Amino acid sequence: MQSAPKYGTDQRNENETETRMPLGRKNYLFMLIGVGIIILGFVLMSGGGSSDPNEFDYSMFSFRRITLAPVVVLAGFAFELFAIMKRFEK
Is the pLDDT of residue 74 over 70? Predict the structure, then answer.
């Protein structure tokens, strides 16, 4: 008499087991693009300082540093989430 299979055991044949990575090549490529977008946002955020501490420089309050750069960084993080969650067909 054959005993019932135990819970948690793999019932597939050894020939059918196929190792599959959770993320594919396109996912990693898109993740690198997302990191590039995030780095671009931080580069846009940089600068605007003054070399003289007694002089105030209003260029640090420009549209690029206050609005555009944070939006680009957030878009990069959203792109990263997309790159991780998207399942591409082979």
Answer: yes
